[in-house]
Amino acid sequence: MAQAALKPCPLCGKIAVESFSPFCSKRCANVDLGRWLGENYRIETDEGAVNDDNPENA
């Protein structure tokens, strides 16, 4: 089976490494994970904000 060409790392642009795909290194993979855990990435919706103090808004 032929190996597909790896795309550039989405963070730094270097060629991705198969073991860290789609990233080029563990560092870039961890930076991306940190951004997700820090809620830097968001998916926009048309839903209103949820107030955790009021169960009626859940």
Structure description:
Helices cover 21% and strands 0% of the residues. It has a domain at 1-39: 2-Layer Sandwich (Erythroid Transcription Factor GATA-1, Chain A). The protein is mainly alpha-helical. It contains one helix and no strands. It starts with 25 loop residues before the first helix and ends in a 21-residue tail after the last helix.
| Oligomeric state, counting identical vs distinct chains | single chain
Radius of gyration: 18 Å
Q: How many DSSP E strands? A: 0
Q: What percent strand?
A: under 5%
- CA-based shape: elongated
Features:
58 residues, mainly alpha, 1 helix, single chain, elongated, Erythroid Transcription Factor GATA-1, Chain A
Please give the structural blueprint.
Elements: H1 26-37
Task: Describe this structure in a few short sentences.
By secondary structure, the chain is mostly helical. It has one helix at 26-37.
